[in-house]
Design brief:
Elements: E1 3-6, E2 9-11, E3 23-26, E4 32-37, E5 43-46, E6 55-57, E7 66-69, H1 71-76, E8 86-88, E9 96-104, E10 110-111, H2 115-118, E11 129-130, H3 131-139
Antiparallel strand pairs: 1-9, 2-9, 3-8, 4-7, 4-9, 5-6, 5-8, 10-11
Bound molecules: 2-oxoglutaric acid (AKG) and fe (ii) ion.
Organism: Gossypium aridum (American cotton)
Protein name: Fe2OG dioxygenase domain-containing protein
InterPro entries: IPNS-like_FE2OG_OXY, IPNS-like_sf, Iron_ascorbate_oxido_reductase, Oxoglu/Fe-dep_dioxygenase_dom
Amino acid sequence: MGSIRTNLNYYPICPDPKLTVGVGRHSDVSTLTILLQDEIGGLYVRGNQGDGDNWIHVPPIKGSLVINVGDALQILSNSRYKSVEHRVIANGTKNRISVPIFVNPKPTDIIGPLVEVLQNGEKPIYKQVLYSDYVKHFFRKAHDGKKTVEFAEI
Ligand SMILES: O=C(O)CCC(=O)C(=O)O
Ligand SMILES: [Fe+2]
């Protein structure tokens, strides 16, 4: 079994959302993230079409959860599954709440491309890393998109 971490995010009203960062663009260090958001909206995922600055709003749908692929799954699957870059923009008139549940490897786990994934002779893109080192690296600096994944690249 892995480890679970639950965050409670509160985004107060910001009269001029352009002047603040809700959550800067990043991918989660999890395997999967299960996210409950209220009805306000403000979560954007980065699409892979166009000029690369293609942000798609994730509209809140009553009774639904958002499931995001995280970096650990990208590494374990040797990039078959790609973690999703996302960000949150604050709201000008309403407070927002979200509750992400991060489903993670254990801090003591060593993660790398699974043998099952490489059995056809596929070249590993990632090395074996101690998961707690990966997480430490993520929190060491301000978010910068998917840059953290480079820490695990060969
Ligand atoms: O508030 C959200 O919708 C997402 C928050 C988030 O990306 C995170 O906590 O990692
Ligand atoms: Fe996130």
